[in-house]
Structure formats: structure tokens, C-alpha cells
């Protein structure tokens, strides 16, 4: 067992950290205040990302990507967690599910996404179907060689800048038996839908307290006609490709949380070593120093959970439970670390002159998206109990 980074892994960490500090941090405060990423800054970040060789780092080298393995990509995401998410979007990482593209879909979607000509968004969640994604109402019915989609999706990240959407819809029902109970379940199919397709509209979503400038949108389908050739993967097998390509995105959330927590921790550590009250550095008070001890212990624990889950993926070992544990621990850890960092800073911690109140707000969404903490606990407990027949 080797806990050190190779020189190549260290190079990834150093390069991305340098990029984040140089190209992203200077714009963060303005984006936070305006809630908007100016187009010229977005283009600049993407151009510099391409120059750095890290654009589409998650995609295979053979199709023009960076070819990072899961562990390397997790290290990259850990560093990107130190950046504003609204700006970090432009450090291009196309959705891995596009690797399911076949035939002409590769030329039309996969390759343009990898070289940065097209941008994707991924749409599962609906107003009535969040954690219970199979309860989705957005559906498609067949009409000759085409499919007609009706329904809506909400909370869809950065759809405002997407050229096409990867959309999961219900395409029928089937009978199933689970632990002795018989019922019907929806068959789900994944479609690629271009912006501008008749009957498909993308509109602004809600204002979130977390990650200002990171837009969420509402997608509406009103008799939206798409040909069968736009099906990603196989008909009725949308969850198969989702399971194959998407559960790793939880690892991304975990890695982002670890990176951001270390940024916050460094601020708290420095402040504790400088701020004086009662003629002493506040770091000398056990009430403050023990907070720092607890913070770093939890950060390190999240870091190892996250990296070891990524390592398991690279060894082709099942990592579903480990990824859920990493996402659960890291998102809850970040909430604790941002809250305690504000306590270390006292009143100034709440003022928007400092970025701490932003990190505290931003941390809130990490326990919700990509599967809530309760859903992660469900995944973990099922993995433990199912083999015992429970
Ligand atoms: C800013 C933002 C961006 C997002 N981006 C995207 C995106 O790009 N694409 C996309 O498809 N989705 C996206 N989402 C959706 C996100 O994945 C969902 O919000 C999340 O899955 C939870 O669904 P929900 O909000 O409907 O909550 P619900 O599912 O309604 O949950 C409400 C509460 O009930 C709990 N609960 C539900 N079921 C159970 C259960 N079985 N056991 C115990 N507790 C349970 C939940 O944990 C939660 O506490 C985004 C969300 C946000 C906030």
C-alpha cells in the first residue's frame, strides 16, 4: 500500500491548483455579487483550460480527451473544489455518459463535447420526481420512427449554456417483483435533444443561496419530436447507462467538498494564529485549537474515503457503497468545517467582505444534489443488508 502521489499525480494537483488560483479566484467576488459569469471570462477560462491540456480530462485520449483515470480525475476535481463552481463549469468536463454514443452520435455529440464545440446538460429531476427518479412523469410515446416527448424537468444545471440536453424520460411500464412484492415500474430511456428542437424550451430556474452564478434551469417538452436515432444507449435501458456512467459523479461532489474544505480550513488556521484577544493568539485557546483539530481530522477522513473509492474504481472493484460513503461524509464534513470556520472568525466570518459566508452557503447544496445524504445512507445500508437477505 502506497499513500504517496506519483510525480504525474502531483503534477496534476500543482497544475490545476495554479490554474484555479490564477484564472478563477480573481473573478470570484464579482460573480458572487452579480450572479452572472460574463461571457468573455467564461471563454477565457475555457481557452486557458484547453491550453493547459486539461480540457475534457475525463475523456479517453483516443477521442481527444485527457485520458485521466478515476484517481487522477478525482485529484483534479479536488483542486477544482477550491474554485467557484459557477466559474469552474468552464473548465470543461463533458458528461461521461456521452461515451455511450454510437454511430453518428459520436460525430454529432461526443466529439464536439470533447473538443469544446458543444456543451451538454443532464436532465433527470422533475418537480414531482427527485430522489424517486423512477417516479418521473416526463414521457415519450412512439410515432413511427420518431418519439414525442412531453413533460418538464427542473433544477437542471447550466442548461442555459447547453447546446443539447441528455434527457431521461419514461417510455413505458413493466411488471416487477422485488422482495416478494409485485408491482409495475417505469421503463426509462435516455434521449439526446438539441437546443432549438421544436417543442423544447429552456427557461430560467430558481435563485439558489448556494453557488451564485451557477445557473439551474427548467426544461419544458411540449410534443417535442425526436428521431429514434437520438436515443442514447438502448430503448428502455436508460438506467443501465446511468448506472454505468453517472454514479461516479458523486465522487466528484466528494472531491469538490474536500478541496473546498481545505481552502476554508487554511483561512481558519491562519486567522487563529494571528488574531489576538485577551492578549493572546486565539489559537492558544483550547476552544479554538480543538475546533481546528476536529476540522482537519474530518477533512483527512473524507479525503481518504474519496481517494480510496476512486482507486477501487480503477481496480475494477465494486465501489458503489464506498462512493456513497465518500459523498455522505465529505458533504456533511464541509457543512461542519464551514460553520466552525465562521466561529473561529467570530462576527467577521458572517460578513461578505470575506468569502466564508459564501463557502457556508455553498456547502448546503452538497448534501442535496447528486443524491441527498438520506439517499447515500440508503445505498450504504442496502449494500450491507441485502447480502444478508434483509
Ligand atoms: C442547484 C441544484 C442543481 C441540480 N442540478 C441537477 C441537474 O443538473 N440534473 C438533474 O437531473 N438534477 C439536478 N438537481 C436535482 C437534485 O439531484 C435533487 O434536488 C435531489 O436528487 C433531491 O431531489 P428533491 O430536491 O426533489 O428532493 P426529494 O426527493 O423530494 O427529497 C426531499 C427530502 O426527502 C428525503 N427523502 C426522499 N426519499 C427518501 C427515502 N427513500 N428515504 C429517506 N429520505 C428520503 C430526501 O433525502 C430529502 O431530505 C439539482 C439540484 C439542485 C438543488
Q: What is CATH's topology name of the largest domain? A: Butyryl-CoA Dehydrogenase, subunit A, domain 3
Query: Based on the structure given, which CATH architecture of the largest domain is correct?
Result: Up-down Bundle
Bound molecules: flavin-adenine dinucleotide
- End-to-end Cα distance: 34 Å
Low-confidence stretches: none
Q: In which range does the helix fraction lie?
A: 40-55%
- The chain-level mean pLDDT equals 96
Output the structural class.
alpha+beta
Radius of gyration: 22 Å
CATH superfamily of the largest domain, by name, is: Butyryl-CoA Dehydrogenase, subunit A, domain 3
Question: Number of DSSP strands?
Answer: 10
H/E element string? HHHHHEEEEEEEEHHEEHHHH
**Largest sheet data:** 4 strands, mixed
Entry keywords:
binds flavin-adenine dinucleotide, Butyryl-Coa Dehydrogenase, subunit A, domain 1, 4-stranded mixed sheet, 390 residues, Butyryl-CoA Dehydrogenase, subunit A, domain 2, 10 strands, 4-stranded antiparallel sheet, 47% helix, single chain
Task: Describe this entry's structure for a reader.
By secondary structure, this protein is of the alpha+beta class. It has three domains: 89 residues, Orthogonal Bundle (Butyryl-Coa Dehydrogenase, subunit A, domain 1), CATH 1.10.540.10; 119 residues, Butyryl-CoA Dehydrogenase, subunit A, domain 2, CATH 2.40.110.10; 143 residues, Butyryl-CoA Dehydrogenase, subunit A, domain 3 (Up-down Bundle), CATH 1.20.140.10. The chain has a four-stranded mixed beta sheet. Strand 9 and strand 10 form a beta hairpin. Helix 1 packs antiparallel against helix 2, helix 3 packs antiparallel against helix 8 and helix 7 runs parallel beside helix 9. The longest helix is centred in the C-terminal third of the chain and has 29 residues. Flavin-adenine dinucleotide (FAD) binds next to strand 1, strand 3 and helix 11.
Amino acid at each position: 500500500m502506497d499513500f504517496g502521489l506519483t510525480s504525474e499525480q502531483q503534477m496534476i494537483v500543482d497544475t490545476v491548483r495554479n490554474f484555479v488560483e490564477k484564472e478563477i479566484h480573481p473573478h470570484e467576488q464579482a460573480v458572487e455579487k452579480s450572479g452572472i459569469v460574463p461571457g468573455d471570462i467564461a471563454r477565457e477560462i475555457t481557452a486557458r483550460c484547453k491550453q493547459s491540456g486539461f480540457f475534457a480530462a475525463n475523456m479517453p485520449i483516443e477521442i481527444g480527451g485527457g485520458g485521466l483515470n478515476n484517481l487522477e480525475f478525482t485529484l483534479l476535481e479536488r483542486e477544482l473544489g477550491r474554485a467557484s463552481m459557477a466559474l469552474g463549469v468552464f473548465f470543461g468536463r463533458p458528461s461521461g455518459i456521452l461515451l455511450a454514443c454510437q454511430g453518428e452520435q459520436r460525430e454529432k455529440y461526443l466529439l464536439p463535447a470533447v473538443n469544446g464545440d458543444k456543451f451538454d446538460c443532464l436532465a433527470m429531476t422533475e418537480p414531482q420526481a427527485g430522489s424517486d427518479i423512477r417516479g418521473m412523469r416526463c414521457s415519450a410515446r412512439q410515432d413511427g420512427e420518431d418519439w414525442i416527448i412531453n413533460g418538464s424537468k427542473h433544477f437542471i444545471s447550466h442548461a442555459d449554456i447547453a447546446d443539447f440536453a441528455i434527457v431521461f424520460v419514461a417510455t413505458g411500464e413493466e411488471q416487477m417483483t422485488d422482495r416478494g412484492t409485485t408491482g409495475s415500474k417505469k421503463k426509462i430511456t435516455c434521449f439526446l435533444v438539441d437546443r432549438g428542437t421544436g417543442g423544447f424550451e429552456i427557461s430560467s430556474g430558481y435563485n439558489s443561496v448556494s453557488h451564485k452564478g451557477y445557473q439551474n434551469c427548467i426544461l419544458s417538452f411540449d410534443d417535442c419530436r425526436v428521431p429514434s436515432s437520438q436515443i442514447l444507449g438502448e430503448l428502455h435501458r436508460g438506467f443501465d447507462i446511468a448506472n454505468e456512467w453517472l454514479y461516479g459523479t458523486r465522487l466528484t461532489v466528494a472531491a469538490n467538498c474536500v478541496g473546498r474544505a481545505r481552502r476554508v480550513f487554511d483561512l481558519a488556521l491562519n486567522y487563529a494564529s494571528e488574531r489576538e484577544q485577551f492578549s493572546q493568539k486565539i489559537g492558544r485557546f483550547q476552544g479554538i485549537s480543538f475546533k481546528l483539530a476536529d476540522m482537519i481530522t474530518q477533512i483527512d477522513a473524507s479525503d481518504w474515503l474519496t481517494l480510496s473509492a476512486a482507486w477501487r474504481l480503477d481496480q475494477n472493484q465494486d465501489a458503489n457503497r464506498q462512493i456513497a460513503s465518500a459523498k455522505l461524509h465529505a458533504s456533511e464534513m464541509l457543512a461542519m468545517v464551514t460553520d466552525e470556520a465562521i466561529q473561529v472568525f467570530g462576527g467577521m466570518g458572517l460578513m461578505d467582505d470575506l468569502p466564508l459566508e459564501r463557502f457556508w452557503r455553498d456547502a448546503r447544496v452538497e448534501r442535496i444534489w447528486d443524491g441527498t445524504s438520506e439517499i447515500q445512507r440508503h445505498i450504504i445500508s442496502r449494500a450491507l443488508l441485502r447480502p444478508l437477505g434483509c
